[in-house]
Design goal:
Endonuclease, Chain A, 33 helices, disordered N terminus, alpha/beta, globular, 38 strands, 968 residues, eight-stranded mixed beta sheet, Rossmann fold, single chain, 5 domains
Length: 968
Amino acid sequence: MTANNHQYLITGGEDPFRPKLINDINSAKRIDITVSFIRQSGLRLILDALIDALDRGVEMRILTGDYLNVTEPMALRHLLLLQESGADIRIFETRGKQSFHMKAYIFTFSGEHGEKSGHAYVGSSNISSSALNQGLEWNLKVELEENPARFAEICRKFEAIYFHENTQRLSNAWIAVYQKQFEHQPVLLFPELEPEEPLLPPEPNAIQRAALLALKQTRIEGYKRGLVVMATGLGKTWLAAFDSVQLASEKVLFVAHREEILTQAEYTFVRIRPEDKVARYSGLEHQLEADMLFASIQTLGKAHHLHKFAADHFDYIVVDEFHHAAAQTYRQLLNHFQPRFLLGLTATPERTDQADILALCDDNLVYRRDMFDGINSGLLSPFSYYGIADQEVDYQSIPWRNGKFDPEQLQNKLATTRRAKHALQRWEASKQTRTLAFCISKKHADYMADYFRDHGYKAVSVHSDSNIRRNDALSKLEQAEIDIIFSVDLFNEGVDLPAIDTVLMLRPTDSKIIFLQQLGRGLRTHSLKEKLVVLDFIGNHVSFFRKPEALFKIGVSKKERGEFIRQVQTGTLKLPQGCFVNYDLDAIDFLAKLIATNIDTQEQFYRSLKEAKERRPTLAEFYQADGDVQAIRQHHGQWLAFVDAEHDLSTEQRQCLQRFQAFFKELETTTLTKSYKIVLLEALIELDGFQQAVDITELAVTSFNVIQRRRALLSDLPDRFRGLNQLDDKHLKRWYRYWMDNPINAWTGGNIRNASRAFFKVENDRLIFQGNIPETEIDIFLEFVGELIDYRYMQYEARPEKKQPIQSEPKANVISIEKARKQRIPYFPDLKIACGHFKVSEHDEETVRKVSLPEQYGHLDANRHFIAHATGNSMDGGKNPIKDGDYLLLEVITPDNAGSISNQIVAIERQDVSGDDQYVLRYVRKRGSGQYELIANNPDYQTMPATEDLRTFARLKAVIDPDDLNDV
């Protein structure tokens, strides 16, 4: 072997194989690998590079085998995911007779002018951690240019073994058979094979454990859907995987709107559930058999795909970040499937973003933790934020269209010497060791990298056309071989970058979500850093409010923005522990001037909300953000007419509005004594009832199920139907009559003099919508109906008390009434309701005080309602924890008002052996005919059976905010 023919040995120790391997993976146009075994410890070292290669269209073939049962099933699951992304993975079956002990890595490259080159390594390295890193391995490198005959011979041998009769394409079915073989037969190690620690799944962190407990509790309470809000970096995808195990689910569906989210989720779920069959759904029949199916909403949301699955095919469904897509697309999916539980996930930063999402999850916000919670809990790194005045760019002069700057003109303004100099100076003053910078375009990233290199720094530009690959740049940054990466969009999410300690924001943000994702790249904790430094450039344009709106959760009104500026100026911003914020005076001046002349009308408020969301807000979002719906209605007649006046409806949407304007207005304003009218419409959507006649019995049952799902509506039910989880024959007949007499009667004209004006009619025991919806408009129609239903639910559930029929009134009027009216009830300071085991609680009538509460706690009666303290921790858990010392608003239960106590939290009394009264608080669940059990929210306390010596004496109405108590 000679040096001049470029054939040489690569050995382990100080000359490991891994760097050479990754370098060639990052440069190749074609990759062929055959090794006798693959272990997860080795695959994860090169996995990111392989994924990047597939993303840029590299042809990839990998062959491994079952020789001596060394290849690990989890590694095969990950290889299967590579196959889903375009690789061709094959298995050589030794069948107990044929040895399979080869190791070869072949890479083909293409030059700028199409010339071919190549490297082939033949030697001893399998894909394991020891073989690629520290192990003493010999691998002979053969280059195509120097020895084309030998290189061609290696390629021919690879082709022969790759298409050998013993090989077959990797599949879930093959892995399932091999899994049993791997587990039940002894593994015969190669003599040179060193034992390695298996790659175990991670344990849930503190926030995930709390969320898992809340999810468990919400299912105990009867919810079948729920929303979890968790900031980027807290592991919401891991949470979903953990919860799918907690529920013991057998069939999992994960839905998202972007491929990169699905890819990340696949690898996460495989780590937690390595024995389950996994597939990415593209419509092929074999994918229906997967235990874990990952699908884009754009594909699965279509009717012809949905109908391939039975309604109960999946017992656990995860919908991630669905606020990015049209609600109607998701409604079709949610209306079709009936899993044991559906989990909605989002990292959305503000309450108004949750309006529609929460409606799709039965208004059940199970758990929420934002970025500040993550920092306070130690799971995310604290930050020092610098808002830097972008003085070198006049953003007011750049054309602004559809909520975005003109990209070419923005790029030209940002890629200038003066601005690069300003950025470099501020970076030098505050930087730490490893910086990730976000740019507006490839040209901008290249320009900034060149400028920083010219000033002596090790800088690279990373994007889809750059010479350096993403995984290589990250590795060099972590090893401090480079100082800064300038990127466009490759690092927004899905990549772990814990070592980054400085983030440089060199661009306006098109999205608050993307801003938080970019910020989140540096918030991972790491032993190499104590904090994250954020250098954020703020310009003279209203779009720059998106950043504080995302980071500090401020609203879009002039008042809320003004209050934010005041807090910055006075140093009173609420920050997590260890965090620091400083805005340049000029940056604050930019923002202050932007709101100084802004007239905050409802129209302007709507436009600000639209810009903040990068789409037009729904009615529920506008209402939840404290928009004045009544003012809009007074000027425009109805919400959709206002949206049309704002030029936010397409031609097709406008036609649909004109055709069904009267129905949309009735839905928006109809009087609601109970929730039944909108429940019926939601059930109707689930049954395609606007497109076809619906059997009333089926409609009544579906409506009952909607109420069961939306637990906040259970109080609307008459006593005879409360506590029922489903309708038996006896109750179904009663419910049918009740449903006919109420919402069906109302919608068919029973409450108006001229029934011909009704929107529905009943014929042959079927409900029919009296409107002909063109096929081209049905999706638009259902989207509008869904939007209005969401608003009416939100408005209805926010009412202080359902004593009077309500229409859509200005929220400000309701709030002023709540603040004005007070009610007096008794407060027993020394009456303790035990949240633990039964406790004696003596109270003296002379200590009773009279207190008042706002109207928001409902209509209160001094003869029935009273306040006492909780003591202990047995109810401290779940969605609505009750803590030691909380003030409890309770309602005395009598035979006249008891109703059903199932699925409620009640106070229970008994006498101990000395005759003293004892009290305990528990959630009541019915077990069977006449049998009940008492459940604690805190799993540390055991469930108790309800026995004859227990007396239910009060039900919990609410936990009181102490600030609402006033002595009278």
